[in-house]
Amino acid sequence: MPTATTAAPVAPQSSKSRIPSSLVAFPSVSQSLHSLSSATSVHGVSLHPSSFSQHPAQSEAKLEVALNKNLAAAKQRQQEDQERRLREMKDAARLRMLEEQRAQASAETALTMKSRKPKAN
Prior knowledge:
By secondary structure, the protein is mainly α. It has helices at 27-36, 56-115, and strands at residues 5-6, 24-25. A two-stranded antiparallel sheet has the order 1-2. The relative contact order is 0.06. Residues 101-121 are annotated as: Disordered.
């Protein structure tokens, strides 16, 4: 049996909305809700049949749509990260090539300066 935690009484925020004098949160429910945001399929989500739900198939379909959106967003982020890393690698390679060209040019300049003979006046 999961333990319940109780919060201190909270004053109402407005006259229309009433907040209960004590709130109860079950750790199992809290953990399930927290992990739902990173779920990518229904298989990892605990679904509980509800006597209050008149349309369980529609509810499950809505959940499936939301999870598909979540999965698509995760794939999009992963693709964007891969593209960003590829751009960074290309930029780093360009910088290395430029540094090598500068070093080679300065070495050639130094050799040219050494090989020149001083002019006699």
